Amino acid sequence: MSAAQPIRNVSDTALWMAYYRAEESERPDALFHDHLARKLAGERGEQVVRALRRGRAMSAPMVTRTAVIDELLERAIQEGCDVVLNLAAGLDTRPFRLQVPPSLRWIEADLPELMSYKEQQLKGERPACQLRRVSVDLSDPVGRQKLFDEASEAGNQVVVVTEGLLGYLDTKEVAALALDLHRQANFAMWITDLASPMVLKRVNKQWGKQLKAAQAPLKFAPVEGEMFFKPQGWCAQEFRDMMTETDRLKRPLPGAAIFRLMARLAPGYAAKQAKLWRSGMVLMVKCS
Hints:
The protein is α/β, with parallel strands linked by helices. The protein has helices spanning about 10-25, 35-50, 60-80, 95, 110-120, 140-155, 170-185, 195-215, 240-250, 255-265, 265-275, and strands spanning about 85, 105-110, 130-135, 160, 185-195, 235-240, 280-285. About 45% of the residues lie in helices and about 15% in strands. Helix 7 (about 170-185) links the parallel strand 4 (about 160) and strand 5 (about 185-195). The radius of gyration is 18 Å and the shape is globular.
């Protein structure tokens, strides 16, 4: 691995995120405890974070994203969702660390190479629910449709999770995915994260060259935010603003102190900036 090209492919981003979860889990005030993250991240995950410019400093939004999606997902399950479909699941370990009913069916899908690595690393570990892994390229419409049909038939209320996935798709691909999810009768909820165009611009300025070289450029950041999904039949039930949540969870974003000072000295300007930078996690349901 070279400093110029720390990320080889999109699968390396899963090691990157696992390393953030490992570091968070080892804090005395950890927001969650992912006892498998260090093993999954391996040396490669740490190398990626160290090689990326300000890699460690950017753990706050990723850790916050994980913690908030934990909360939204646990509530969806408590409210009756009996199947979790985690698309582009990467090295996520929620079936092993969340308190979920043993009867819950959990389906996680990702590229074959990544699923194989995960299977090997977690051999012998026991999930808290009924876990099934599916190797699939989600850009393949036939394989994707088969996965969705099987997930819909697995239970009565499916909650779909796309943590960290949509950013790698373009607008047309996200719209097509949203329509495919909406067509499934038993897909009741959808949890995802969204970036604003300003956040996308900032991330691409920082890491864009490395991500593009790894054929994993970030592209999706709709100006209209969660309203983007309404034409495809999905309406936001709850939006969790990233800046608000990082403050609540005491994982401040880089530059948060400057923004708070700006809010006191120039509240009008700060409000405009907050709107431009608005990103976060959203729980969607089918529009009535």
